[in-house]
Amino acid sequence: MSEFWTQQFRHRMMKFASRRPPRDDEVPVSIKIRVTSGCFHREHSPHAYDLIDRHLSSSSPDQTDFAFEEHESGPEILVYLAVTTAGITLAKSIIDLITAIVKARSDGIRQGDHPRDPLKLSIRRTRRDGEFEEEEVMQFESRDGFLEIEIEEPLSAAANRLLRKELPNDSDRNKT
Prior knowledge:
The protein has helices at about 5-20, 45-60, 90-110, 150-160, 170-175; strands at about 25-35, 65-70, 75-85, 85-90, 120-125, 130-140. By secondary structure, it is an alpha+beta fold. It has one domain (about 5-170). Strands 1, 2, 3, 4, 5 and 6 form a 6-stranded antiparallel beta sheet that branches. Helix 2 (about 45-60) runs antiparallel to helix 3. The protein is globular. The N and C termini lie far apart (about 40 Å).
């Protein structure tokens, strides 16, 4: 991973966190839906992005709690995850958005979008010390459809692995 890319990623995460600083129980992360090769952006996937745009305009998640970023390699969702003693909590609206993006890719291909390479879902972040961390979640074939639960469970598991150092433990709970 290039230093230039890492700097850009840090900058995106800092800009996101500056819009609304995280609460004590939140950690900002990036959820990336990336093509394995080729591209997945508006120019080459207009049908998919039309569907994604419709989903974004019809859903009403709090716009300060997430940001949708477009990249040539695929969309990125910057979001706060709630970190509790029970683990990481992903907002239903974010799971819905990820599911809508994967479905839009598949539907877009059926409507004539040309890139057909598989998608990979990953979750990543910048630690407090500035280092980059990433957990691969799963891969989707371009024409696959997925249910929310098929995405939510592996994404939650990956988020828990990525943020395990942030999770409060029993000794922390006993201090209050």
